[in-house]
Amino acid sequence: MLKRAKTWGPGVLLLAPTIILVGVFVYWLIIENFRVSLTNQHTAKPSNKYVGFENYTNLLADPNFQHSLWNLLILTIVFLGGTLIFGFLWAWLLEQPAKGEGFFRSVYLFPMSISFIASGVVWRWLLSSLQTTQPGGERTTGLNRLLDSVGLGFMQNDWWSNPTWGIAAIAVPAIWQLSGYVMALFLAGFRGIPDELREAARIDGCTEWKLYRHVIFPQLSPVMLSAIIIIGHMSLKLFDLIRAIVPDANTYDVQVPATMMWVKYIGSDYADAAAIGMILLVLVAIVVIPYLMYTSRAEKR
Amino acid sequence: MRRRLSLLAGVAALGLTLAGCGGGGDSTASDTTNPKDATGKVGVFTWWADGSEKAGLDALVGVFNKDYPNLTFDNLAVAGGAGSQAKSVLAAQLKAGNPPDSFQAHAGAELQDYIDADQIEDLSGFYKDNDLTSQFPKDLIDRLTVDGKIYSVPSNIHRANVVWANVEVLKKAGLDPTKPATDLDGWFADMDKIKASGTIPLSVAGSWTQVQLFENILLSSLGSDGYNGLWDGKTDWKSAEVTTAIEAYKKALSYTNTDRDSLSDWAPATQLVQDGAAAYNVMGDWAEAKFEQDGDKSGVDYTYFATPGTQGVFDFLADSFTLPKGAPNPGGAKAWLTTIGSAEGQTAFNKVKGSIPANTTADTSDFSEYQQSAIKDFGQDKIVSSLAHGAAVPVAWLNDLSTAVSKFGGDQDVAGLQDSAASIAAKYAK
Fold it and tell me: So where does this one cross the membrane (chain A) (predicted)?
C-alpha cells in the first residue's frame, strides 16, 4: 500500500494544483455559465428563475444573432482559405532549394509574434473605409490611399464597413498574421517526407505534378488537418482583433457571437451572454472533438 | 489531523459568511456616520481618466481635500470606451460584494439597474440633511426620484441636442451662421447648399454617435411629448409619425461622411468640423470643452445652436454619484457626496468640464459664453432625457436599439428599423 503510494504519490502531488485550478476555473465555471444560461437573468436584478432552453431558442430565432453566425461563417471560410493558400504557397516556395530560406522563414513567421490587439490598431488605419473618390476623400489613409497612389484606384473599397461582406475584410489582417504559422506547419510536413520517396518516384518516371499529387499531398494531409483545426477554432473565438479594428463593439456589420456576447454582458443581460458563450463552446467543440478522436486513434495504432 | 481539517473548514465557512455580510451591506451603519468625523480613504470609481473630464475631477478633488483634510481621495478611474470598460469592471466588483465608496453613473434609467439589483443606498435622508432638494431644479429631482426615493447626487448637467458648426464653411456655402434653420426641412435645404459647395454637410462617428443623431431627429420630428412617449409607451413606435422621423434620419445620414463607422469616437467627428472638412456635427456640449481647449473662438471659428426643430427643448443627461450598499467607508463617501452636491464643488468641476452645475446656487459668473446660454436654457426649456446616454431607457434597451440603428446605417431599411424598434420597446417597456 505504502509502496504503491510512493510510486504515484509524488505525481499526484505535483499535478494536484493544476487539476484543482483547471477544475475550478475551467470546468466549474463552464457548469456555472451553463446554469446562468438557463435562468432569466436578463437585467442586473438578481434572478434565478429557470426557463430551460428558452434563451437558446430565442437567440437562434433572433435575426441579429443569425446575422452574427453568418458573419462568423464568412470570417471562418475566408480566414481558413487565406491562411491555407498563403501558408502552403510560402512553404512550397521555401521548400525549393534556394538561398536565404532562414531569412524568409523569419519574415513570414514574424507577424505571429504580434498580438491581435496591437496589429488591430495598425490595421484599423490601413483598412480606412473612405475612398479618394468620395467627399472628404483627401483624408483617407491606408490601403485605399495606397491603391490610389499606385494607379489602382478602382480597387478601393469600403473594407469592413460593407454591410454584407465587411467581415471578410477583418479576415485580411488575421490571414496576414497566421499564414506564417501555417507555413511553418507545412514546411515541417514537407521536411518529414524522406528524399528517398521522391527519388524513387522520379526513377519510376513520375512527372513533378504526379509526384506532388500522389506522393507528397497525401503525406501532408495530417498537417492540413491540424492547420484547419487550429485556425478554425481561433476564428470561432476571434474577438480581440475585431474590437481593435472596429471602434464600437455594437457595430452591426461586423457583429460575431463573441462581440455580441460582450455587448449583452455590458447591458447586464447575463443569461443571454452566458447562452452565447455556451453556443460558442459547442461550436468550438464541434471542430476540436473529431480531431482529438482522430489523433487519439492514430496514436493507438 | 481530521479535527484540524474540520477546524479549517469551519474557519473557511465563517470567512464566507462574513464576506457575504459585507456584500449584503449594512444600511444602518451609514446613516449614523457623520461625514465630518469620517477618516481614512475614500475610493471613488469613475471613467474620467483624461482630457477635460480628468481636469474636472481634479478640480473637484481640490475642493474635497480642502473641505475634508482628514480624508484621502483614492482615484479608482478606469479609462476607455466612453465608460463601457469601467462599467464592466464595476459590474464585476459589485457582483463580488466589493464595491467602491462611491461610483459614477448616468442619472435616470441607467441608475435603475443598480436600484433593481439592490446595490445602492437610498439618499433621501442625505438630501434632507443637506437641503439639496431646494438647491437642485425640480425637473432634475423628478428624474432622479424612483418610487419616492433619490439614489444619487448629480455633479453636472449636459445637453445632447446641440449642433456645432464651422462658421467659415457656412459662409462659403452662402449661409448666415447667425441664423440657423428652425426645422428639419430648412436644415436639409442648408445641407444641400453646403453639399453643392463641396463640403461634407454633417459629420458623425461610430454607433453611439449615430444613436445620438437618431435621438435628435426623433426629438425634432416628434416634439418633446412625442419623444418622451417613446419611452413610456404613450407614443406608438409603429405610427406614421415615427415613419416620417425615421425617413428624416435616413435623409440626414445621406449627408454624412461615409467613413462614419471607422471614426473611433465623437472627437474625430467634431474635429472634422474644426478642420472645415464638415459643416455640422450634432454632439453633446462636452464638445464645447474640446473647441475651447483647441483654442477655437466661439462666433469666429465655430458656432452652436439647438438641433433644428428642438428649440425650447433641453435634451438632458447628468453624471451622478452614488453610495453603494456595503461601501467600506460610508462616512467618507457621504463627505464626497457633500462636496459633489455643494455649490463650490459644482462650480470648480463644471467650469473645467464644459457642462453646467446641477446646483442652482453655484456661482457661474465666470463661465464660458456657451455655458451661460445653456444655464439660461435649462432654466426655461422643456427637459427631456437623452437616449444615447442612459437617461431615457435602461442599458439593455439602449443596447438593442443601438444594434438596430447600427444595422440601419448599412441597409437603410426604414420599415426594418421601425419594426425592430417597436419590438424592442415591447420587450422592455413596463
Answer: 12-31, 69-94, 106-126, 165-190, 211-231, 270-294
The position carrying cell 424598434 is: B421
C-alpha span between A239 and A259 (Å, rounded)? 6
CB contact under 8 A, A44 and B272: no
pLDDT at B20 over 90: no
- Helix-helix angle A257-266:A270-300, to 10 degrees: 140
CA dihedral B411, B415, B421, B422 (to 10 degrees): -160
Interface touch A161/B272, C-beta < 8 Å: no
Q: B417 CB near a chain A CB, below 8 Å?
A: no
Q: Tell me if chain A has a CB within 8 Å of the CB of B207.
A: yes
Which cell goes with B188? 436639409
Q: Which residue of chain B is at minimal alpha-carbon distance from A265?
A: B88
> Which tens digits make up the pLDDT trace of B314-332?
999 999 999 999 999 999 9
Please report residues of A whose CB lies closer than 8 A to that of B274. Answer: none
Is pLDDT at A61 greater than 60 in this prediction? yes
Burial tier of B10 (Cβ tally within 10 Å: 0-12, 13-18, 19+): exposed
ipTM of the complex as predicted:
0.83
Pairing between β-strand B149-150 and β-strand B278-283 as defined by DSSP bridges: unpaired
Q: What is the pLDDT of residues A283-294, one digit of tens each?
A: 999 988 888 888
The structure's pTM equals 0.86
